[in-house]
């Protein structure tokens, strides 16, 4: 009869315990992903002067609004809607080849004064050749579409608007982050304060996720831990 015993090292047990605790911590919490947006994602509007001097007339300059002009974003704190329509593609191809060859030949004539006689001359030769051919090709394409509302965080001296915004969408096991920032020319603002992302300068667009550890991974770690303690 053959007896088989499985020996468990305490180092492996400690490692599995550490992985078990770490998986529990990761499953219970999540970390906000980093961002490439360097501006604040929102800004409060500048407080308006509410102490306008009464002049006794019905018309008040501070409350003036044009009848035939829609309200466009132009001040800090105003909001716009960015229509994200980004499509990029790039490709690269390369090829190269090289070859090299060589040949060496030598012969010994019967009349070279050797101590023995040669009926025929002896010929020695060697050939070598080397060839190399390389080809490489790479391509990438990206498509990002959606909408996000942003806030005017600054007004530049030339009238351009610095905008920034963030959208968070929470799901069962994590959250999705959509962030946007850039500089907008007020002339590109269309009806309803909409601006296509292709007309935004210095645009920074990002989509990141913050997912938690999947339950199947936790079960897999638990199974490995108990199997390491099993004697069979």
Cα separation of the termini:
16 Å
**What can be said about the biggest beta sheet?**
6 strands, mixed
Number of helices: 2
Low-confidence stretches: 1-8
User: Which word captures the global form?
Assistant: elongated
How many structural domains can be distinguished in the coordinates? 3
Please state the average pLDDT score: 74
Secondary-structure element order, as H and E?
A: HEEEEEEH
Report the helical percentage: 10-25%
Structural class: mainly beta
What proportion of the residues form beta strands (DSSP E)? Answer: 35-45%
Q: How many strand elements?
A: 6
Radius of gyration: 37 Å
How is this structure best summarized?
This protein is mainly beta and 232 residues long. It has helices at 10-28, 215-229; strands at residues 79-108, 122-155, 161-171, 174-184, 194-196, 201-211.
């Amino acid at each position: 009869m053959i007896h088989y015993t499985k020996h468990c090292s305490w180092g492996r047990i400690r490692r599995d315990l550490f992985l078990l605790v770490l998986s529990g911590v990761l499953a219970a919490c999540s970390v906000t992903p980093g961002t490439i947006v360097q501006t604040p994602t929102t800004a409060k509007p500048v407080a308006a002067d509410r102490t306008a001097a009464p002049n006794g007339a019905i018309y008040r300059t501070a409350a003036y609004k044009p009848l035939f002009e829609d309200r466009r974003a132009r001040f800090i704190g105003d909001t716009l809607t960015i229509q994200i329509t980004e499509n990029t593609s790039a490709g690269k191809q390369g090829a190269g080849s090289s070859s090299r060859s060589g040949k060496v030949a030598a012969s010994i004539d019967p009349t070279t004064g050797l101590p023995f006689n040669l009926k025929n001359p002896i010929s020695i030769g060697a050939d070598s050749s080397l060839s190399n051919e390389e080809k490489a090709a790479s391509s990438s394409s990206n498509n990002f579409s959606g909408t996000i509302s942003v806030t005017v965080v600054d007004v530049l001296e030339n009238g351009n608007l610095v905008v920034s915004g963030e959208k968070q969408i929470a799901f069962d096991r994590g959250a999705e982050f959509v962030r946007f920032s850039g500089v907008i020319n007020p002339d590109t603002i269309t009806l309803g304060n909409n601006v296509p992302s292709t007309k935004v300068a210095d645009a920074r667009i990002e989509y990141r996720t913050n997912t938690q550890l999947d339950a199947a991974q936790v079960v897999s770690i638990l199974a490995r831990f108990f199997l390491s303690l099993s004697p069979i």
